[in-house]
Amino acid sequence: MNIIEHFQNRQSARSFTHEHVPDDIIMESLEAGNLAPSAGNLQARDFIIVKEDDRKRALSKAAYSQDFLAEAPVVIVCCANLDRIAGYRDRGRELYCIQDVAAAVQNILLYLSDAGYGTCWVGAFDEEIVSDLLRLPKQVRPLTMIPVGRVRTKEEPTSRIEIEDLVHYEEW
Description:
Layout: H1 3-8, H2 23-34, E1 45-50, H3 53-62, H4 68-71, E2 74-81, H5 89-114, E3 118-119, H6 127-133, E4 140-149
Antiparallel strand pairs: 1-2, 2-4, 3-4
């Protein structure tokens, strides 16, 4: 399989079995995430692993009733650490830490896909509710939730814009 086919195998999952996800798989995915580039190598990201059913249901509700979050055996909440990026001042807090988390999330998604698990990048949720639910300190901002589990129903692959329509040379 070439590298592009490897990436094509990753797709969002919104239906999960109840099969347990081993802790070592979750931890290795987070290690892969933390190997992603980060501004100044400050790694301004933190991860919260959620397995408890009531808490997953509350996360699902905070995510505007995206029920598949509660169905997944594990939800990883990926957060920006604003203190860790503070040396970059406003640009660090408003951009670099978001980029750091996004790069980590992509590594996590690819690792878990390769390990045979389904995931979905969930960004639609009420940050304040999630922060309260997970007792996040004020300098930690939840940016993404990733439900993880074995896929029950495989989704149809989504289409992509032709790369030639996205690429520009030298200027727009």
